């Protein structure tokens, strides 16, 4: 781990208790320099209680003194043997409690628009389990009737770059296997930004779909010519001979 825990609270403490520059605090806490300036001005992290990195065994006073004397010096975390290898731990992504109810909607979106993704890739992307993914694939999930597909990026469950990386990885794997892809599959394997920029395929409206080969008459009937009616047949007029006899 190269960043302190409770980074924003640690930045609040460093702003209040040291003379470190905004850049030094931002580098140490993994924040933007303007965000640290906002903390100093009281516009950011209002009401956040400072977290003492010295008392919590993350920094030593000598390191702070050295950084205060040299503005170009970057703070370094105190060596913690128990944290060695922590960044290499692998497993499902942690999802906050407030967003866990949105995971089924994101899974349904990924299954629908990126069926080439494996259950393991989806599990790591949105932090879910394989049985849940399988239930949504087979539409046996208990709430499947009420689930609407929503982009996991829009829900904040993953980053756009992470989704694009997995999609590109699936494309490379598909190409390495030598499988022939259809146009729909090829469109799904490009990045989301590229797919959103594509022009939609022209399709017939649903109301007239299937009527492009419909005909009102047979070919045999078209060949028969109907006789042209006489103009006099439209009027019920008496003959001239009958008019002369009456006179």
From TrEMBL:
Organism: Actibacterium naphthalenivorans
Region (Disordered): 178-247
Biased composition (Acidic residues): 219-229
Name listed for the protein in its UniProt record: Cytoplasmic protein
Superkingdom of origin organism: Bacteria
